[in-house]
From TrEMBL:
Keyword terms: ATP-binding, Kinase, Nucleotide-binding, Phosphoprotein, Transferase
Pfam families in the record: HATPase_c (PF02518), HisKA_2 (PF07568), PAS_4 (PF08448)
Protein name (database record): histidine kinase
PANTHER family recorded: ETHYLENE RESPONSE SENSOR PROTEIN, TWO-COMPONENT SYSTEM SENSOR PROTEIN
UniProt keyword Metal-binding, yes or no: no
Originating species: Methylobrevis albus
Catalytic reaction equation(s): ATP + protein L-histidine = ADP + protein N-phospho-L-histidine
GO molecular function, one term: protein histidine kinase activity
Enzyme class: transferase
E.C. no: 2.7.13.3
Domain (Histidine kinase/HSP90-like ATPase) ranges: 243-340
Amino acid sequence: MPTAPTEHFETASTLAIVVSSNEPLLFLTEDQKIIAASASFCRAFEINPATVSGLPLGELGGGEWALPKLASLLTATAAGSAQIEAYELDLRRPGRATRRLVVNARTLDDGVVGPARLLLAVTDVTDARAAARLKDDLVRDKAILLQEVQHRVANSLQIIASVLMQSARRVQSEEARGHLHNAHHRVMSIAALQRQLASADGTMVELRTYFTQLAQSLGASMIADPARLSIKVTVDDSVVPADVSVSLGLIVTELAINALKHAFPAERDGMIAIDYRSAGKDWTLSVTDDGIGMPEGNAAPKAGLGTGIVEALTKNLASTIEVKDAAPGTVITIRHRETTDLETPDLETDVSSAV
């Protein structure tokens, strides 16, 4: 003898799944009356499970579920003309905090013939949204603070550079004046580096723009006659992390300053070429001048601050350095290779005559 259909055409298995679900679920008739509610739904919204069966959705709780737009979407879903996916709404209850909910609903197809039935899933995202807003606020506050720090750093560097130049004009010793000029050049280079990093988007730096601005800053502070000396930059489309760009920028600065100081004596004309190329994780940086070349023997300058800076930075980048006669001039090449295990040579021997 066939079993008589029930009023809501529910099956025992469907009811059991809904009621025992760990997710807040509602099982609804086509006209939005509640067939069953999961225990997790009742706990989440503080509703007595014994009161929900047969209750219209709009009368659930204190009537807070009487939401016209939700009701309209459910009607369209039951008719097959729509499907609720990630619909967000605010559930307002007197005397309680408003909750932000994400609702998904679809018709249930479990083989039972009869009017459409709806399965409504509810996710409370109130805390997640609040955490996201807090994170956004913190990121915005951090960006504002970073911008303020960058302005202060830029101003401080300009003040230091001005003090160094004023001191250089006052001192009588040529040696002291030379040291002050060197310090001024380095401060101006760091200022250029800081400006580039401050304008960088995120944590990656585009090297072509960065090296070009660095070369312009060096030229403005150290080249009195651009018709006599120039700096040329050739860089591919490489982008590198900000910390790597700092090391590369300081290396370029030291090598360019060295060439400007030593490679073109007696008003000699010339050019410094900065070149950077990468292939995957491998890269090559070279700084070449067409000056007088590397002095030998007693004429070679002693290793100084620039040597130590280049040595330390090259080692930090897990790279090697090579100094060669460019005929005319000098080429200093720094290479980084991920594909082979390269040992950093004794840099003082290689660079002491050039930096």
